[in-house]
Amino acid sequence: MAGYCKVEFEGLFRLVRDLGECADGMRSAMKQLKDIGPKGAGSDELEEACDYFQKKWGHGIGLIAEATGGITEKVARAGRLYQHLDDRVAATVRSVRTAER
After folding, report:
1. Alpha carbon distance 54, 61 (integer Å)
2. How many CA atoms lie within 13 A of 9 on its CB side?
3. Is residue 4 part of a domain?
4. What's CA 8's distance to the chain center, in Å?
5. Assuming Cys at both sites, which of 12, 29, 34, 101 could form a disulfide with 79, CB separation 3.0 to 4.6 Å?
6. Which three-class secondary structure state does DSSP give residue 97?
7. Structural domain contains residue 40
8. How confident is the model at residue 77 (pLDDT cuts 50, 70, 90)?
């Protein structure tokens, strides 16, 4: 039965880290754009573009960052559960006594 169910714990926890960084990066970028505000970018065209982007995408990117945060927690929880179950299965297998032992 080996090979039917295998969890790559290192990859799973790397995914959790990457998702967290992604959500933080989206929030940080939107905050920086908001801090620039409609004035302060140094160029009328750039200020208009920042303002347009903030109005058009600010709410949506906030929702995406929030959803990414929720997914991150769920993936982390699943990883902890898989790790716990894997540890219990391994302990159970080690405890089985056979006639040869």
Report:
1. 9
2. 9
3. no
4. 16
5. 12
6. coil
7. yes
8. very high
Tokens at 26, concatenated = 């989206």
Q: pLDDT tens digits for 37-66?
A: 666 667 788 778 877 878 888 888 888 888
Domain count for the chain, please give it.
1
Closest CA to 20 of 62, 63, 76: 76
How many angstroms separate the CA atoms of 17 and 11, rounded? 10
**Token code pair at residue 29:** 């970028």
Stretch 64-92: mean pLDDT: 89
The DSSP code sequence of 11-66 is HHHHHHHHHHHHHHHHHHHHHHHHHH-SS-SSSHHHHHHHHHHHHHHHHHHHHHHH
In a domain, 76, yes or no: yes
User: Has residue 77 been placed in a domain?
Assistant: yes
* pTM to 2 decimal places: 0.60
